[in-house]
Structure formats: C-alpha cells, structure tokens
Amino acid sequence: MPPLLPIADARRLIIQALAPVGVEDVPLADALGRTLRADAVARVSHPPADVSAMDGYALRAGDVTAIGGTVTTVGESAAGNPWTGTVGPGQAVRIFTGAHMPAGADAVVLQEDTTVAGKAVTITAVPIKGRHIRRAGQDFAVGDVGLKSPRRLTVRDIGFLAAMNLPRVPAARRPRIGVLSTGDEIVAPGDPVGPAQIVSANGPGLAAFIRHHGGEAMSLGIVRDDMAALRAAIAGAGPLDLLVTSGGVSVGDHDLMGQLMGPTSGSGAELAFHKIAMRPGKPLLFGRVGALPILGLPGNPVSAMICATLFLGPAIARLTGLSGEAPRTVTAVLGADMPANDGREDHVRATLAAPDPAGAPGTAVATPFPKQDSGMVSALARADALIVRPPHAPAAKAGDICRVLPFDF
Ligand code: AMP
Ligand code: MG
Hints:
By secondary structure, this protein is of the alpha/beta class.
C-alpha cells in the first residue's frame, strides 16, 4: 500500500490546482466575508480636524496654572456645529465629544473637573496642553492605505471602509461551489424518511460552510449510487469554480466517486490524490473532470465537516485570491489524558473552556469528548475546537500543552 499523503501536501495540491476568480465592484452591504482585491485608500481623514475626545471646556492651558483658576465661557462647539471664533486669554468654549477644537484653544478640561456658575468656570484640575484632543488624521489621513489587498473582510473592516468614505470596494466574485450529496440512503431534511434511509446532514451543512467562508453554495441535491446518475449530475452541474461531493469515496462496491475519478473510468477525469494521512476522513479525493475541480469528501458528516475545515476553507480562500493557508491553530492545555497517536494526524472533537471560571489568567483548557465516533454529528456540533494530534504523537497527560483548531463557524 502506498504511504498516505500528508495533509499539508494534499492542501498544496488543491491550492495549486485552483486559480483566483474575477473581481467585481460591490457595495459594503455585500462585502462582508469577501476578499478585498485592491488596496483600500482613504478618501477622507479621520478625524477631519482636531476634535475634542471628551465633554468639557476648551481653553488655553497656559491660562490656568493652578487649581481654582477661572475662565469665562464665550461660546459652544458641538459635533457638527463648530464654534468659529478664536479663544482669547481667560476664555473657554463649552465643548462636546467630536466637536472641532476652536482656534486659540490647546487643551480640554473635563466637565467633571469644573464648577460652573453662569459663564464663570472654575477649574479643579490643572489643564495639560494637548490633553483630550484627537488630532486631525490621527486615525487615518486621506490617501492612506487603510486595508491591503488581498484581505478577507471582517465585520470590523466594514465599519473601517465606511469611515474611509468607500461605499463600494473591489472584491472577488463569490466562488460558485456546487454541493452534491451521494448515497442511495440519503434523503433531504423534511422529505419522507424510509426505514433504510437517513437524512442528509452534509448538503445543508456544507452549503452553510461555503457561505460562511465567502462562497456561493449551489445546491445540486442528492444523487443515487449509480454511475450514470452521478455522471449526469456532474455534467449538468452548470458553471462552477469547484464541485464538492459527499460520500462514495471509500473502496466499497457502492463508492463510485473513486471509480469515476479513476484512470480507467473513461470520464476524462484526472485524480490528484485519494486517501490522506488524517483521521477522521482518510478517504478524501481531489481531481478534476474536464475543467471542473472536484473535492470528494467522505459521506460521514463528521469527516466531511473536518475535511471541509482543513481543505475546503483554504480552497475557497484560494479561489478568492488569498493564499489558502492552513486554518489557524493555537495552544491549549489538555483537560484529559490522551493515548498515543498512530501515523495519521488526528482531529479530536473537544470543548474549549476558560482555565478558571473566576478569571485567573492562564491557557484555555481543551477537553476531548469521551466518545470520538466519527458518525456523531451531535458531538461535532457541541465541540468548540479540534485537538490536533500530529502523526505518532506520544500519549499525553491532562495539563500537557496541546494544539487546537478553534471553530470560527
Ligand atoms: P460513504 O462515504 O458514502 O461510504 O458514507 C459514509 C457514511 O456517511 C455512511 O454511514 C453514510 O450513510 C453516511 N452519509 C453519507 N452521506 C451522508 C449525508 N449527506 N448526510 C449524512 N450522512 C451521510
Ligand atoms: Mg455512500
């Protein structure tokens, strides 16, 4: 038997086979989760002028050098309604957060540090020049590159782009990714379920995964374990950037994906790999039929979702113009003993909890579920993270440091 392909090599083969999709101009309302494909350059400065960071009084710091000094209010500067005069000696302007600093003033005294009697303001904390003032452009200045391309846009980026006065951005088209579930036993949720049938977790689950990762999920439904039907479903899939299938990748008689993608199938298919050194999900297949790249995930819903995490996420990222690197992992402390691992990288469903409910600092604790049956969709849904066990990792004890991949979806 040839050695199983390491995960990193499999991911590289997938990434190398995929080219980035085109770019379109999208409104911010449709930009979340897309990949920015040109640097975002600020069209305004923020703040646009020197503004107050607090509610209080703008004055000349040099006028009040001791507690108890008094100034006279000569006007008011509010956000959107600046005061247009110049603050002279012994004068102050009532000012509010976000309001322009009036000419002449060089400090803000907090409202809390004053006693007010009519227009006379007594200062109870000595002002410091420059205090509580946000300088024009201190956040960003017009012409600054706020966000560099390529970058997957986050919720926080959307606010930043808006603040830069960019109502639209050039972003990758959402890759069109077909989802095809295979299996004689599979029915769609809500359809009648016969005695020999199970409900498809993968169709809806993978579609959600694709959407969450910035793709457009094209549901191709369920196809029976029948070569002609499978070929017809793939041929009729329509224009796609990638087809994801679930099921039929093992070596059983009814596992048709491997046969379809094999060298003797006569389907014009090209197989890049089939079977990798991981658990769960050893049978994972990637190749192409004609120009269409196909990622064949195992039918087992836990395996399918973990393979999606390790391979489909990076594939979508690559299609949008990102590098498609491995999902981020962090360190945690093991919450239970773990046995030695064999030659396949293992992905153990686990909870991730704060080290101490009382809030003492420390590393998060990853506790594996006692049952790791890869057929258990419930445990996958309840898990917070995967503990990643490298090939041939020795047995580990509770309290040891481990590597975890936290779910962000
Ligand atoms: P297969 O990869 O086709 O051998 O399927 C492996 C296991 O996953 C079998 O127990 C299937 O019944 C199950 N399975 C296949 N497809 C799905 C699906 N779409 N949803 C839930 N379970 C599935
Ligand atoms: Mg099957």
